[in-house]
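dumping this here so i dont lose it
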């Protein structure tokens, strides 16, 4: 228990502390006002300060080893993804080139309508291979964990497999009649 005398001393001390805090708040407010006035005279706006702070913070982030390593990894992954997509594009171009060369002087545009081409076995087989490749890429890259290897290995193997499967094993139509089925 606290005696009456100690209570009085604590009340006096409390009042002094509250008074000091109030005085400090007033001093701080006056200094903040003075700071704003100086910044206005120097032409420093809040927006400029924010830009400078953001630039400095961004620079600090970019110099961290974690950022550098992440940037390097994502850059490498982007290069691998670009290579894989390029391989798929090359396979698609080659497939269409093969289809065009088998048409013996007829342009696809003149020899087959788009709906008929979409229903042809060749187009359906090609479409299935593209869907399988896309699904495989989405599954392997999309975040689900597979024991199949690293991101780079998955991209490389998927691109290689899609290029091989889209080039081999698909029978091309040999006559205009087969194209129009």
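and the seq i came up w/
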């Amino acid at each position: 228990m606290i005696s009456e005398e100690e209570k009085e001393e604590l009340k006096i001390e409390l009042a002094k502390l509250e008074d000091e805090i109030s005085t400090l708040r007033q001093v701080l407010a006056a200094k903040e006002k003075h700071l704003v006035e100086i910044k206005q005279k120097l032409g420093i706006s809040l927006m400029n300060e924010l830009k400078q702070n953001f630039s400095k913070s961004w620079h600090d982030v970019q110099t961290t080893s974690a950022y550098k390593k992440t940037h390097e990894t994502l850059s490498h992954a982007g290069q691998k993804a670009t290579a894989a997509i390029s391989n798929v594009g090359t396979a698609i171009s080659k497939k269409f080139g093969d289809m065009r060369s088998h048409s013996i002087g007829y342009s696809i545009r003149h020899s087959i309508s788009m709906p008929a081409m979409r229903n042809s076995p060749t187009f359906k087989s090609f479409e299935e291979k593209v869907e399988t490749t896309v699904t495989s890429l989405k599954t392997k890259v999309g975040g689900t964990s597979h024991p199949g290897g690293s991101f780079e290995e998955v991209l490389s193997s998927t691109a290689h497999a899609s290029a091989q499967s889209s080039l081999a094993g698909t029978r091309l139509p040999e006559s205009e009649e087969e194209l129009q089925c």
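The helical segments are 4-42, 46-62, 65-101, 108-111, 114-118, 121-141, 151-167, 176-179.
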